[in-house]
Amino acid sequence: MLLSGASNLVLLDEPTNDLDVATLGAVEEMLLDFAGAAIIVTHDRWFLDRVATSILAFEGDGRVVRHHGNYSDYLERLAETEAAPEPQPAARAAPAAAKTAAPAAKRGLNYSEKRELEGILGKIEAAEGEVQELEAKLGDPTVYSAGKDQVADLVRKLDAARQRAAALVTRWEELEQRSAGAGA
């Protein structure tokens, strides 16, 4: 009975595990166009960057904290929090943390990250093309006579497309840096 009617909630558990690229793209587009809420459990950072508008992070002390934005936004806020000055006793432990972080930056890319790097430029190009397409639509004066809902929808899609493109570029830079660091 519950599933026979219209729904405004989707629950997905590791949706990217066994999907081919075309199906994954269709799932992403469905989620981006979905007007309701989606609760997604995944280890796929790329997927989170594409579809997430907020992150529920399970903190080490057992708390669950909601962070607005996609996965890249969450990582930026996390880095800002960690970079903030800490009390003096914690500052003494910082050199040990720096020693353990250095090998991680030099460790290179794993198999899935190498595959991601191979295809990311095409995805960046597609995302930037989507931004240009939406900007062109918003530049057409006739779109404004169709009503404010259509304009608002286009603006929302443009903002999301810009965020996706920026997240892709950031991810590409990160992968390139790690790939180059491993070869040095």
TrEMBL record:
Regions annotated as coiled coil: 117-178
Domain ABC transporter Uup C-terminal: 109-176
Entry keywords, A to Z: ATP-binding, Coiled coil, Nucleotide-binding
SUPFAM superfamilies referenced in this protein's UniProt entry, alphabetically: P-loop containing nucleoside triphosphate hydrolases (SSF52540)
A Pfam entry, by short name: ABC_tran_CTD
GO MF, one example: DNA binding
Region named Disordered: 82-104
Gene3D superfamilies: P-loop containing nucleotide triphosphate hydrolases (3.40.50.300), Valyl-tRNA synthetase, C-terminal domain (1.10.287.380)
PANTHER family referenced in this protein's UniProt entry, alphabetically: ABC TRANSPORTER ATP-BINDING SUBUNIT, ABC TRANSPORTER DOMAIN-CONTAINING PROTEIN
Protein's UniProt name: ABC transporter Uup C-terminal domain-containing protein
Organism: Nannocystis pusilla
